Amino acid sequence: MKLLYVEDSPRLQRSVGTGLRRAGHVVDVAGDGEQGLWLAKSGDYDVMVLDLMLPALDGWTLLRRLRDAGRTTHVLLLTARDAVEDRVRGLQAGADDYLVKPFAFEELLARVEALGRRSHGIKRPRIVVGDLEIDLAGRTVSRRGRMLPLPRREYALLEQLALHQGRVLSRPEIERHLYDERTDPMSNVVDAAVCSLRRMIDRPGEPSLIQTRRGLGYVLAPP
After folding, report:
1. Which pTM does this prediction carry?
2. N or C: which end of the chain has fewer CB within 10 A?
C-alpha cells in the first residue's frame, strides 16, 4: 500500500517510517501540516497516518480541509490526547480511526492495514484468486496448499494486484503504489517485477494468473 505519514518528530518519522517500509509499504513523510495537506490532496494514498499537534497547520484543520476538498483517503489519527471528547472530535471531523501515543508499532501496523483493506472493500484478511491464496495479515502466499515465499518487492506487487483483483492496473498506477518518486518513470521496473512474480507463483504449463493487457497494464485474475 501507499501511505502518507504526517508527523513533526524526526525520531518518530525515522522509526515508524522505517517500520512501515519494512512491512512492505511505500511511505511518504511530511513534517508539518501544510506539506501534509499538499501531499494528501495531490497524491493517491491508501491510508494517511496523521498527528494532530503539527506546526504550520494542525491536524484538525488539515483533516477538515482534506474532507472539504472531497478527498476520501482513510485517516488514522495519532495524538497524545486521550480524552474521550478528543477522540470523538477526531472521528466527527472525518477520521476513520484513532490511536493514542505512546503506541505499540504492531498495533499501528494492524490498524493501518485494516484501513487499507477497508478502502478496497475487503473485510477478511485473505484474498483468493483461483487456487492462489494471499494472507494479508500474515503476509504469506500459498498455491494449492504449498507456501510460496516471496521477496518484499514481489509480495507488494501481488498484494496491490490482489486488492484490485479483476481490474487492469496501468504501469503508472503500479509505480505510484510500489515505488517512491525517485524511480525513473522510463525504467522497466514494473515489467521486471511482474516477470519475477510470475516465475514465483505460476505453475509450469498453465496460464499465468497475471495477465497482460497490451497498452493498458496488468490484471490478476483466474486463468
Report:
1. 0.77
2. C
Torsion angle, CA of 202/208/210/214, rounded to 10 degrees? 150
The answer on pLDDT for 185 being more than 70 is no
Closest by CA to 201, choosing from 141, 113, 115, is 141
Q: Are strands 146-147 and 210-213 parallel, antiparallel or unpaired?
A: unpaired
> 2-119 belongs to which homologous superfamily?
Response regulator (3.40.50.2300)
Digit-coded pLDDT (tens) for 61-113? 999 999 999 999 999 998 887 777 777 888 888 899 999 988 999 999 999 99
**Distance from C-alpha of 88 to C-alpha of 91, rounded to nearest angstrom:** 5
Provide the sign of the torsion angle of the four alpha carbons 17, 120, 132, 197, taken in this order.
negative
Write out the three cell numbers for 15.
Answer: 522509526
* Degrees, nearest 5: CA angle 102-108-111: 135
Q: So what CATH class is 126-220?
A: mainly alpha
Q: Are strands 97-100 and 126-129 parallel, antiparallel or unpaired?
A: unpaired
Residue the block writes with cell 503504489: 177
